[in-house]
Amino acid sequence: MIASVLLQAGGGNMTQSVLMMVLIAVVFYFFMIRPQTKKMKDQKKFIEELKKGDKVVTIGGVHGKISEVGADFFMVEIDHNVRIKIQKSGISLDNSKALNIPEKEA
Question: pLDDT (tens digit, 9 = 90+) per residue, 35-51?
C-alpha cells in the first residue's frame, strides 16, 4: 500500500513523500491516540477510587449512591431500598465527578 502511494506521488522527491507520511502519523498520534489513552487512564483511576457512599451517574443517565462495591460491579441505590447492579464500566466519569465535589460555602 505504501509503495502504491509513493508511486502515485509521481516524479516528486521520495524523501518528501516519506516525510509527509511520517508527519501525518505524528499528527494522528497527538490528536487522536494520545488523548483517548489519557481519557481511558483517567476513567480507570476514577472507577478504582470510588467507594461506598459516593454519588454516581451511569452512562445511561441513572443517578444514585454506591451502596456496595464488588469485584467488577457496584450496587447503586437509586431510591430508598431500590438498588441496581451496575458494571464498573457503566459509570460516567464526566457526569459523576461533578456530584462528588463539595460545594463552597458562601
Answer: 999 999 998 999 999 89
The number of residues in the chain equals 106
Residue 42 · residue 93 · CB < 8 Å: yes
Return the residue matching grid coordinates 465535589: 101
State the Rg of the chain over Cα: 23
- Provide the 8-state DSSP code for 88: G
Which grid coordinates are listed for 64? 444514585
pTM across the whole model: 0.66
| 87 φ, ψ (degrees, to nearest 5) | -65, 145
Residues 73-98 have pLDDT tens digits of 999 999 999 999 999 989 988 777 77
Cell of 59: 452512562
